[in-house]
Amino acid sequence: MAPLTNDARRFAREAIGGFAAAHADLVRPVHGGVVRASATPPGQVAVVLGGGSGHYPAFAGWVGPGFAHGAACGEIFASPSAGQIASVARAAENGGGVLFGFGNYAGDVLHFGQAAQRLRAEGVDARVLTVTDDLASHPDPSQRRGIAGDLTVFKIMCAAAERGAGIDEVEEIGRRANAATRTLGYAFDGCTLPGAPRPLFSVAPGRMALGLGIHGEPGLDEAELTDADTIADRLLDGVLKEAPDGARRAAVLLNGLGATKYEELFVVYRRIAERLAAAGIEAVAPEVGEHVTSLDMAGLSLTLTFFEEDDELAELWRAPALAPAFRALTRYRAALDAGRAARDPYATGRAMESVGGAYQELGDWQRAADWYGRALAQRLTRGERSDAARLHGRIAGVHTYAGRYGEALRSLRSALAGYRKEGDVPAQARALSELARVLEYAGRPEESLHTCQEAVEWARRAGDVRLQAALQLRLADTLDRLGDPAAAKLHRGAAERMLGEELAAPEGAEAKPSEQAANTCEIRSASAED
After folding, report:
1. What is the secondary structure of 436-491 as a DSSP string?
2. Who wins on pLDDT, 511 or 393?
3. pLDDT range class, residue 363, cuts 50, 70, 90
4. Burial 465-503 (b: 16+ CB within 10 A, else e)
5. Which active-site residues does the annotation give?
6. Which of 73, 217, 236, 475 is the most exposed place for a label (fewest CB within 10 A)?
7. Is the model's pTM score more than 0.85?
8. Best CA proximity match to 96, nearest among 151, 149, 48
9. Cis bond upstream, residue 100 (ω within 30)
10. Mean pLDDT across 200-229
11. What superfamily would CATH give domain 8-170?
């Protein structure tokens, strides 16, 4: 290992401090590790990963929206203490409980279990899930070590938490992902601990060790070092021995252990991709790179997580994530590259919008606005006024979420102008409705009132009864805030009559309100707490 250290005893702590400083937009340091820079949404399950340091990107590199909520980081190759783990969990938890994820190693099993007991004693629902993907470590799957399969299992589990699943469902999905995951690896040389004069373990020159563990644990056997295609075949054959019958789809991870670099991995993956295609197995969002390392260990591993047809695990694997070392926007970026390569401006613009949507889903409002802006520029260049107006609306939405009401109002007025030029009456009504809502958020109730009244008229022209009713309720709420309860009561009555008439419409009558309007406006009157 390169001697870039100060005091070896402080190496892990200094590394995590530098990591947090470099990625302050995504993580913040706490006692025992890191958590997301933004608070866990209320009621969301907090997934806290962890283990010894020395395996970056595992585990701190996976903290961020769409992935983990926190990571407990021990010393090099040493489990974090129960106190450190509990500290990280308390910083991450926000009412939805905690699910701990870690590899199946004795120290981690002990300490994460103790931390879960402490949290349960404090009234927090705390669970544990161990990853057991290493084929070479034990014939019994439940007794195996956890290695590179950590990535696929934890990513799937964390995506379930991000979408709002409860702790029982998140735990069950994690166990399903672990049961579907298999890993096999080769080591070509060992690693050296910071400050150590010699390697912790080694492999004889010209030899390779099948299944050698990431801390030097014994493997299955040794063989003479061979070429890349042969290594790819042996790894894939070994993993496919435990493939489910009829397996046709799998997440694929070719992982470098630290000293085996990307070009070498790509040479190996070329052969793996050919073999998978020949076997009729679709590689779902494949990952090639360093994800679970062992300092400067030379070697690689192949992980497959098998999916059934229409399996939700596949969608969770592909779901967006924004962590320092894992930015799962691959499918959108691929679409963007394809559109650019084909010189297809329309496809390129749609892909840009999809990237913006992924960032919006992850709560990264600035990047979302930036990508929507790129898509908008594409539409304006092509004179596509309707799509341009719609994108102005999407930009306004992310500015609103971010609390940038002035920018949101400017974007909404641009959207409104575009819809007027297009003569799109329903869209004008919706844009005016949103404009009134943002004016209310911006503390301009009188302007909001007048805009809302204008929106009611446009909704009437569009024949959108539900939108009219929603606007009447918004008028009532605004009038209450302005101190006119009598007028507010009249508008609430109008809303109730509209909704009553719509509910009483003859069976089979076609509903006029648009889906967009129903999604835009909430049909309720605000409480005093709003």
Report:
1. HHHHHHTT-HHHHHHHHHHHHHHHHHHT-HHHHHHHHHHHHHHHHHTT-HHHHHHH
2. 393
3. confident
4. bbbbbbbbbbbbbbbbeeeeeebbeebbebbeebbeebe
5. 215
6. 217
7. no
8. 48
9. no
10. 89
11. Dihydroxyacetone kinase; domain 1 (3.40.50.10440)
Second CATH level (architecture) for the domain 342-423: Alpha Horseshoe (1.25)
Q: Which two tokens stand for residue 277?
A: 């295609």
Dihedral class, residue 438 (left if φ above 0, else alpha if ψ from -120 to 50, else beta): alpha
What pLDDT, on the 0 to 100 scale, is given for residue 510?
40
Residues in Cβ contact with 381 at an 8 Å cutoff, skipping those fewer than 6 apart: 345
- Tokens standing for 447? 């302007």
The CATH T-level fold of domain 182-327 is Hypothetical Protein Tm841; Chain: A;domain 3 (3.30.1180)
- C-beta neighbour count of 14 within 10 angstroms: 13
Nearest to 32 by CA among 45, 10, 50: 50
407: phi then psi, degrees, rounded to nearest 5:
-65, -35
Confidence (pLDDT) at 314: 93
**Residue 339, CA distances (Å) to 36, 40, 335, 346, 377 in order:** 34, 36, 6, 8, 16
Instruction: Read off the pLDDT of residues 410-454 as tens digits, 9 standing for 90 and up.
Output: 999 999 999 999 999 999 999 999 999 999 899 998 898 999 899
> Kind of pairing, strands 221-224 and 126-131?
unpaired
- C-alpha span between 84 and 81 (Å, rounded): 5
Count how many Cα atoms sit within 13 Å of the Cα of residue 458 in the half-sphere of its side chain: 23
**Nearest one of 63, 73, 51 to 23, comparing CA atoms:** 63
Q: Locate the DSSP E strands across 226-270.
A: 249-256
Tell me if the bond preceding 139 is cis, omega within 30° of 0: no
Q: Which of 202, 224, 221 is nearest to 211 (CA)?
A: 221
Give pLDDT, residue 481: 85
Indicate the length of the chain as a whole number: 530
Match 């399950």 to its residue by tokens: 45
Choose among 64, 67, 68: nearest CA to 37.
64
Neighbouring residues of 346: CB distance < 8 A, sequence distance ≥ 6: 339, 382
In the three-class reduction of DSSP (H, G, I as helix; E, B as strand; rest coil), residue 272 is classed as helix
pLDDT beyond 80 at 196: yes
- The helix (run of H) or strand (run of E) holding residue 401 is helix 385-401
Of the candidates 152, 201, 194, the one whose C-alpha atom is nearest the C-alpha of residue 174 is: 152
Which whole-number Å values give the CA distances from 175 to 199, 239, 269, 289, 353, in the listed order?
35, 19, 27, 25, 34
Q: What is the spatial distance between Cα 346 and Cα 188, in angstroms, rounded to a whole number?
A: 48
E strand map for 56-125: 70-76, 98-103
CA–CA distance, 247 with 280 (Å, rounded to integer): 9
Sequence spans of domains, the chain:
8-170, 182-327, 342-423, 442-530
Q: What confidence category does residue 332 fall into, taking pLDDT thresholds of 50, 70 and 90?
A: low
Give the span between the Cα atoms of 32 and 73, in whole angstroms.
6
